[in-house]
Every structure is written in structure tokens, then in C-alpha cells.
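fwd from M.: "can u put these together and see what the complex looks like"

so here's what she sent:
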Amino acid sequence: MPLQSALDEMLPAIEAELKAVVLSPQNVAYPELRRMLAYHLGWEGEGAGPEAQGKRIRPALVLLCAQAAGQDWRRALPAAVAVELLHNFSLIHDDIQDHSELRRGRPTVWVKWGLAQAINAGDVLFSLAFLALHRLAETVSAQAGLQAYACLQRVCLRLTEGQYLDLDYETRPDVSLADYWPMIEGKTSALLGGCAELGALAAGASAKVREDFREYGIKLGLAYQALDDWLGIWGDAALTGKSTESDLVSKKKSLPVLYGLEKDAEFARRWQAGPVQAGDVSVLAEMLKKDGAEAFTLEQAARLTGESQAALQRAVPGAGAAAHLQELTALLLGRKS
Amino acid sequence: MPLQSALDEMLPAIEAELKAVVLSPQNVAYPELRRMLAYHLGWEGEGAGPEAQGKRIRPALVLLCAQAAGQDWRRALPAAVAVELLHNFSLIHDDIQDHSELRRGRPTVWVKWGLAQAINAGDVLFSLAFLALHRLAETVSAQAGLQAYACLQRVCLRLTEGQYLDLDYETRPDVSLADYWPMIEGKTSALLGGCAELGALAAGASAKVREDFREYGIKLGLAYQALDDWLGIWGDAALTGKSTESDLVSKKKSLPVLYGLEKDAEFARRWQAGPVQAGDVSVLAEMLKKDGAEAFTLEQAARLTGESQAALQRAVPGAGAAAHLQELTALLLGRKS
């Protein structure tokens, strides 16, 4: 069965379990509060639909890892839903912290309901993430439930630490290439590592195998982010499309930019000189390329992809055993936009 | 042993366990992030000390309930610390939502570190609350640990629902007396109910006894809030002290005010007419009294105190068995300022 067929079964199940948690009046008593959450999750309000819901990559990763580790994926659904809720809690707070007015093309929660209610809506999703996980004690075992809590807590802490670094870097002039990885490990990788670990945990895998799955997810996240940073400068939308989509215009301290700054050559001098306008994008991208930043970024992505695949191979030895995950990895890391 | 002697043992143990969780570089890796938390918890920075730390009533309640239910209180420390961290997460976010610039006489976290980092610092404490609870599986049992998670989640949800209502009421012109209780149950009582239930849970009490403890805490919280609302208008500081401390000046929709508005008599007409200045406070307080709001508020507090004590009696039958909790109740509900 190819990956898409598996996802065709899993994604509706994820959505149903998500709705069972978020839309239950027993969990969230007040209709307007449920409406905020349903809006953010893409189920209600203007622009609702698959586009607004996002790809649900993280919960799918949990289920695919549980399956690869030999478990009926349905039993891992509570963990899948927990990570998606945790991810969305962080998005609601992120949007406030970054003053982002749009998320997946729609006004963000704080724009629609104000800052105070948006902070609280994020807190509600945070609470619901832990609530959703509770059912794992039923679908798998009490021990797995407790271990899953420990795992989710560690992820929460790494996530919030990553956010601390990200906010801190925005105001610091002296961010170095070495500062990049801990921030990405917190903001992106910890949750993907948690997804893979929770999947293995739901499958009753040994501590060693859980650790291999976690490593797979963490490296997958780092590779994904390195490629995302590459796309932010050399991707189609960034270079030739809407110039506002270029990370250079937003002056994001991404991996290639930090590499270029450390090189302290042509790009660094231009970067320090002031704002980057839409018309400057292709020239700066070329400077960065000449300084070796594009090659470096793609090398890092390739290295991390390799390490991710090696960890998966250790977790699930034998050819084809983790075919869906291999396909997912290729999909995530082979994207061109 | 009187309550004070018990607290003299418990409070340092609470502080030590709190510090072990929050200040551990293994839990929070970045010194500046630890500094934000240590500042908020009253351990560091200008004005640090017992005043800035607050009374730690909630964790003490957990330990006293565990003790009353027959457990060595030390084994309940993870739960005690979890509720204190949860409480402080909500304070950090509250201060942002209410634009409060001072907390216990010191600048709030958002004033010192900015909005974005303050939201995140609250999120870190939220994560640490769940992390702190994990050790209960060791000090008591895996089953108690899982039940404690379920309890803490419910509390988180009620807390955030209460916050939703509180924020909603601020902008709604038609808040009624009936709207008051669900908001207070969420904002104040759910956590106190959770404290009492967690204490009983750590003691391995039956479901019935846990429920009685929870009821004790919830009613204690409601009575406490009713009295707090009374103090906000007829307390010494409100009436004769600094006029800014009167709930009438801040136009807080407290229990006596909502009663007065529902009476739709002299007080209601004055309230609707516009802002309340410092000089108007004693006149408005007198109007409210004439409309029966003071008597009503004190009646409600007395009724809830009675219900709280009855629940405690059911939870721990026999004279003197819950002497410390009786003394704590008297202390909390007998205060004059």
C-alpha cells in the first residue's frame, strides 16, 4: 500500500479524534470558545476547509511510526491528536508574538478575537493536548500513558525554549551560525522527534528503539528546516514570485544568512548596510551563493537527511519495513515549494 | 501541633521542590529564561523575598489535604509544586491580559521582558507544572500519577474557561448575577478544588473521599472569592485606605455589584451613570448596602463556608482529624484585609 492510501485512512481518523476532543461540550463548555478553536483548526468561519486545516503532518507521523513499529495505528490516535493540539497551541501564541496577521491565508485568532482571548485560546489548546493524551492509557496501557506524558512534557519544554531563543535572536545583533541549531532543535525538531517517539511508545517499543525513532524525527525536523531556509531564498516563490515571500526581505536569520554573515564577505557587507527591498532579492541571493551559503545549506540538509534515514533504519531494520516513512521523508525533503 | 508549626515544615519543602524543578538547567537550559521564572516566583531580582513569593496557599493546601487523608505529606510534594506552577503560569498570562504593570508590588514579567517573552515564560511554567507532577508516580504510584494528570488537566481547562468568561464579561454590558458563579468556579475554585483532590489522591483515598475533598476545595474557593469581593468594597483598604483599591473605582463586576445591578435601584442608576471617582466610593458603598448587597454577599460567603466545612467533615469524619484544614479555612475566611 503506498503512503497516500495509508494517509487516506489516517487523516479522517485524525480529524474525527481531534473534533471529539475539541468540540466536546464536556471538554470546552462555552460555544464561543469552541468557535475560536474550531476557527483556528480550520473547521469553521470564513475560509474554513482543507487549506485552512494544514497538512496534519505531525499526527500522521505519529501514526506512521506506530505502524512501522508494529502497532495498529488506531491505538496511537490519542498521541497523534495531542501533538497536533500542542502544535496549534504554539501557532496561536507564535502569531501573537510575531504580530502575524495571517495564518494559512486567514486572519489569525488574535486579529479576530483580540490579544487577551487569543493568549487564552492557546492555553486551552495546551490543556487539551494533555487531555487528549490521557486516552492512550486505555488504547495502549497505563505505563505507555505515563511515559507519553513524560515525552510530551519534554517536548513542551524544548518547544518553549526554542521560542525563547527565537525571540531573543530577533533583538540580538550577534547571532552566530552555532546559535542556529539549538533554536531549530527546539522550535521544529523537538516536536517531530516527539511524534516519532510517541508512535514507537504506543507500539510498546523498547527504550532503544524509541530513542532511534526520536532521533529519526529530530534529524528529519532539522533537515526539513534547512531545506525550508533554502526555499526561503532560492525557492520559486522567493526568487521569482512575490518578493515579500523571500526571507531576505523579512531579514530572517536563517541558516544561509547566518553562514553568509559568518563568511563576512560581500553578502555580509550588503546585509549590514540596511533594509532589503524587493528589487534587491536576486542580487543578494546571488551574493550568498557566491559566498558558498547555498552549497553549505544543501550539504547540511543532505547530511541531516542521511542521519535521519540511518536512524530510521536502526529503528526498523530490514528493507521496506518502514516504506511509508521513507516515502513521507522523501515527500517532505524533496519538495520544491 | 498547630497549623503554623506544620506550615513551618511544609513551606521550606515546597520552596525547595519548586526550585529543584524550575532552576534545574536540565529542565530549563537558558539562564536568562530561568531568570524570568525566578523573578516571577519571587526568588531573584529587585524586591525578591517572601513578600514577592506570595503565600503559597495552594501547595500548602495540597499537603495539608494529603496529611488529613492519612499520607506523609512529603509524598505529595510533586502535586503541590505542580499546582503552584500552574497558578503562576496563569498569573503571568493574566497580567498581560489585564495590562497589569505590578504584581505583589513589583513590575510584571511583560513589563520587564516584553509581551512575547512573557507569553512564552507563562508557557514554560505550564510545561513545568506537568513535568513536576511526573514525580508523583515515584513518590506514590503509577496509578496515582495518571489520575493526578487527569485531575490537573481538568483544572487547566476549567481555569482557562474561567479566564475566557472573565475576559468576555469585561466587554459585555449584560453580565448577570447568575453569570458570576461559573466564572469564579473556573478562575478561583477549580484550582483549589484540584489542590484538595490531588492531596487526597496522593494519599490513595477512594473516589468518594477524593470527591468530598474536591468539593471542600471548590466551596472554599467560592467562599473565599465572595469574601474577597466584600473586602474589595467594605474592607478597610477599600473604604478608608487608598481609594484606588476599591473595586468600585475599577468598576469590577464583583458579587455585590452584580447583586446591586440586578436590584435595579439607587445603586444601579448611579453605576450606569458613568465612572466612579475616589470621592464617590463611600456614597456608592452605602447605596449598595441599602440595596441589600452587603448582607447578600456575606450570606453567600457564610453559606459556602458551611458547605465547604460539611464536605471536609464528610471527607475526614471525626472531631479534630482535619484540625489543620479547619484552622486554614478559618484563616482564609476570617481575614479582614
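replying to her w this: Residues 142-171 of chain B form the longest helix (30 residues).
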